[in-house]
Amino acid sequence: MRRLADAGRGIIAGAALAITAAAAPVDSGPADSGRAGSSPVASSPAAQDAAPPIEAARVIATYPHDAGAFTQGLFFHDGRLFESTGQRGRSTIREVDLATGKVEREARLPGEYFGEGSTGWRDTIVSLTWQHGKGFRWDRETFRKLGEFSYPGEGWGLTQDGKSLILSDGTAELRFLDPRTFAERRRVRVTLSGRPVGQINELEYVRGEVLANIWHSNLIIRIDPASGAIKGAIDLGAIAATVEVPDSESVLNGIAYDAKAGKLYVTGKRWPQLFEIALPGG
Q1: Average pLDDT, the chain
Q2: Which residues pair with 255 in a beta bridge?
Q3: Which residues have CB under 8 Å from 217's CB, separation 6+?
Q4: Is the sign of the CA dihedral 44, 268, 57, 166 positive or negative?
Q5: I need a labelling partner for 34 at 20 to 30 A (CA). Which of 3, 90, 167, 275 fits?
Q6: Sheet of 273-277: strands edge to edge?
C-alpha cells in the first residue's frame, strides 16, 4: 500500500492512489456466479475531480483484546460489545467485556464453518460464514441458534442501517438484504472516482455512512450507502505499526460503533489491543 506522510491534512492529492493501491479495482469476483435473479448493481457515480480526504486515526483509549481471536465481526448493542471470530473449528459468536477483553460467553459454530462478519438486529445476532453460502441467526441473550439462511457467493462483512442488513462479499459490491427474509433488495458498487474498489471486508454503519476495512490494508474507507462512492478514509497505519502480531494474516479487521456513547472502536485479527479512535471529522 502506498503510504501517505501527509494523511489527515484535508484533501490529499494522492488519496486515490493510496486507496486503489490498497485494494485493486475489481470488475468481477466470487459472488458473480450466484447473481442470477438478484437485484442489479446500482450505477457508479460520476468520476470526482478531487481525491477524498484521508484522516490519520487519533487514539483516545486502548483496551485489552483476546490475542487468539481471529476477528471477523465487531459491533455494539445497548453498550455491550459482541464479536464474531473465524477459522474452521474455532469460529465463535461471543460477548466481550470492553474493559478487560474477557470473553463473557460464546457459542461455537459447527466445525466445518469459517465464521465471518456479524451484526445485531433487534433481539438477535446475525452472522455469516465465508464460503458455505450460509448465515445464522442467534438469540442475543441466550446465544441459542434460531435459524439459518442462504446467500450466493461468499460472506465477508455485515452491518445494518436500521432498515437493511448490509453484506460484503470480498468484491467491490455491497448487498442490502431484507433482515426478516434475507432476500436481496439492492446492490451498490463501491467506487473511487468511478472505479470499483474491491477487497471490502468488515463493515460498520456510522452516522449515515458505511465504514469498511479493505483487506490487507491499514485504511478504513467511508462509503456513501446510496451511491457506493468513497467519501474519505481513515489511515490506521501508525496504530498498526505499534501492534505485535504473529503473522501476515493478522490484519486490521474489526470496526464497532457504540451509538449510545458516540464512540468508535477498531481492532484486528489476533490483535492484543482494541482501540477507541476519534470519529471521522472529530
Answers
A1: 85
A2: 266
A3: 1, 22, 23, 199, 251, 252
A4: positive
A5: 90
A6: 59-64, 273-277, 263-268, 252-258
